[in-house]
Amino acid sequence: MGPKLMSSIASLFLLGALLQVVSAVDHDVGGDFGWNLPPNTTFFSDWASNKAFSVGDKLVFRSKANEMHDVAEPNSEVDLDGCVKPGIVFSTSAVFSVALDRPGRRYFICTIGNHCNAGMKFDIDVLAQPGAPNSPLVPPPPPSSASSLRFGALLAAFSGLLLTIVA
Ligand SMILES: *[C@@H]1O[C@H](CO)[C@@H](O)[C@H](O)[C@H]1NC(C)=O
Ligand SMILES: [Cu+2]
């Protein structure tokens, strides 16, 4: 294998790694409001239904220092609807991240007091990859948003790759 081919292959690996990094998203649960007692019972389900989640993304649960919350993952829609508390609670700390490491539906609640019934619950569909066909209906982002950043990064990666092959 010639050194040129070797470096081209290395560049392809780099490109792949870069694409993964570029496309992973950290989702702040509840946006700026955070993982706190919501103003109404649909706040978090509304938040989740306006987002697309993919494998490699993270959910970041941030709670106010003067509110006590946790994060737990019921196994089913029925348990989510009924606010059935699962045996395992992930965390009671003020900031907690959940890696979305597999595709499929996942359910999240707070198990403290009646917080779940008050709206601290939502479910998400994690897609195998960004833009998979079963994405929720989300209007395309304006050109100035993250996707053009992604495109820019892609372009930079490709020009890097070309330079390596030519060199
Ligand atoms: C719930 O609260 C949010 C934030 O204040 C608001 O945007 C939304 O319209 C409310 N939903 C309902 C059903 O009242
Ligand atoms: Cu809570």
From TrEMBL:
GO molecular function: electron transfer activity; metal ion binding
Keywords assigned: Copper, Disulfide bond, Glycoprotein, Metal-binding, Signal
Residues of the Phytocyanin domain: 25-128
Entry GO CC: plasma membrane
UniProt signal peptide: 1-24
Domain of life of the organism encoding this protein: Eukaryota
Protein name: Umecyanin-like
Species of origin: Cucurbita moschata
